[in-house]
Design goal:
Layout: E1 6-14, H1 36-52, E2 61-69, H2 73-82, E3 88-97
Antiparallel strand pairs: 1-2, 2-3
Length: 101
């Protein structure tokens, strides 16, 4: 796996998640997007869905910019065997979506 090679993806996570533990495998499904806008739209869609259900309360979400190792056979093997957390080279919160109507 070449250290200098990476690609940029975007995702989101609850603003309440502890930064250090966010990318550890916990059985939760992760969603990744090719652009920040696609990730933002997914969060806004999720917010609309939560708003429709009176039993649920919206919790703020962080939009995140992730740099991960470029997909190669070796990287794919690591992903399948050890999970995405081992591939994340850096993670930056780029926005928090809170009380947007």
């Amino acid at each position: 796996m070449a250290d200098g090679l990476h690609c940029t993806l975007y995702s989101y996570s609850p603003a309440t998640a502890q930064r250090k533990q966010r990318w550890h495998e916990d059985g939760g499904q992760r969603h990744f997007y090719g652009t920040a806008e696609a990730a933002r739209q997914a969060v806004l869609h999720l917010k609309r869905e939560v708003k429709r259900d009176p039993e649920h309360v919206w919790e703020p979400m962080h939009l995140e910019k992730l740099e991960i190792a470029v997909p190669t056979t070796d990287v794919l093997v690591v992903l399948l065997n050890q999970g995405v957390s081992t591939l994340v080279k850096s993670c930056e919160i780029i926005e928090t979506i809170d009380n947007i109507n």
